Amino acid sequence: MPRLDADSLPRLADMRDVMDNADCLISQREVERALDRMADEITRDLGDRLPVFYCVMNGGLITTGHLLTRLGFPLEVDYLHATRYRGGLRGGELFWRVSPEVPMAGRHVVIVDDILDEGATLAAILNYCRQAGAASIATAVLVDKQHDRKAVPGLRADYCSLNVTDRYVFGFGMDYQGYWRNAPGIYAPKGL
């Protein structure tokens, strides 16, 4: 997304109005319970494998931080920042803003992101992990958006405890025009 100049930045009052009038789809308490369930499942499956977790920036930051503190086993953490948009409105070839530093070859890899929407970027990241020689690849997303527009038919996250309807959502890592990633639950603007 291109950077906005000062004249085109949203006004503070406008951003507050978005939040004040948003529909809360999933409360923070429900998010916390979902993260507990996800952590239990990941611990059961990967707690004895010394996995490496890759946070997909920027959206996966909040989910990753909250998830990792629930995992009581040794693991490594890295991040990646991949996009298909590069300032445009339509996705294209995967572009690595920041590629992973921790090698994936022979490792049990967990990709953590905020939402599985259409999934084209996630599918490309998974392909990258396979080409990098990961021993296994799992995906953990906080929210799966329910619709029939998945980039890869049948694409699902291995670990996901929450579903949302097909609305524009923000909060807990997901943004509204670059803002409100810090909202403590999952929200949808009125009318969207």
UniProtKB/TrEMBL annotation:
<keyword id="KW-0808">Transferase</keyword>
<dbReference type="GO" id="GO:0006178">
    <property type="term" value="P:guanine salvage"/>
</dbReference>
<dbReference type="Pfam" id="PF00156">
    <property type="entry name" value="Pribosyltran"/>
</dbReference>
<dbReference type="GO" id="GO:0032264">
    <property type="term" value="P:IMP salvage"/>
</dbReference>
<dbReference type="GO" id="GO:0032263">
    <property type="term" value="P:GMP salvage"/>
</dbReference>
<keyword id="KW-0328">Glycosyltransferase</keyword>
<dbReference type="InterPro" id="IPR029057">
    <property type="entry name" value="PRTase-like"/>
</dbReference>
<dbReference type="InterPro" id="IPR050408">
    <property type="entry name" value="HGPRT"/>
</dbReference>
<dbReference type="GO" id="GO:0046100">
    <property type="term" value="P:hypoxanthine metabolic process"/>
</dbReference>
<protein>
    <submittedName>
        <fullName>Hypoxanthine phosphoribosyltransferase</fullName>
    </submittedName>
</protein>
<dbReference type="GO" id="GO:0005829">
    <property type="term" value="C:cytosol"/>
</dbReference>
<feature type="domain" description="Phosphoribosyltransferase">
    <location>
        <begin position="28"/>
        <end position="163"/>
    </location>
</feature>
<dbReference type="GO" id="GO:0000287">
    <property type="term" value="F:magnesium ion binding"/>
</dbReference>
<dbReference type="InterPro" id="IPR000836">
    <property type="entry name" value="PRTase_dom"/>
</dbReference>
<dbReference type="GO" id="GO:0004422">
    <property type="term" value="F:hypoxanthine phosphoribosyltransferase activity"/>
</dbReference>
